[in-house]
Amino acid sequence: MRDWLRNIWLAVSTVAHGMWVTLRYWLITYRSDRGTFTERFEYPEKPVPVAARYRGFHRYDLTTCIACDQCAKACPVDCIYIGKERVENGKGFRVTEFTIDYTKCMFCALCVEPCPVDCIFMGATHDLSCYSRDGCIVDFSRLPLEVAWGRATLNPTAVAEAKVILEPVHGGPNQQAGRK
Fold first, then answer.
1. pTM of the entire structure?
2. Domains of the chain
3. Cβ-contact 106, 77 below 8 angstroms
4. How confident is the model at residue 67 (pLDDT cuts 50, 70, 90)?
């Protein structure tokens, strides 16, 4: 009987403690001096401060990559696609495309360690919003070099501009015949 009452007391006190924590944080949201997220961090004009070991969107240096495929082989979810072609009059490969599908990526950083030339690492970007699934596929070889390389933030506007096709690949169903 004593154990039964102790179990009931433990259950009630645990639920009461959890509800007190919830109530306390709920009341904090109504403080007038709290401010909104954008007032505190001035987002998106200034990036949100992140920890030194934060694993954000990847940073990639196309100029030092030797297309060894080690990062793609180490990726557990197979979200890295590397296009390469053999170098004429020499040895090795040249990278033609380096694409990461962020709809699959789990930001585990297992692709960073096996790279022999340290051309891929985790960046500090935490927000790369897009309106469609194809917007989450980033081809680093199409980005401008000053955007694709560096430990700063990966600019969503530059990523969107890198995906713009200037001329359609085919006529398409919505284009009129004879119109140029």
1. 0.63
2. 58-162 (3.30.70.3270)
3. yes
4. confident
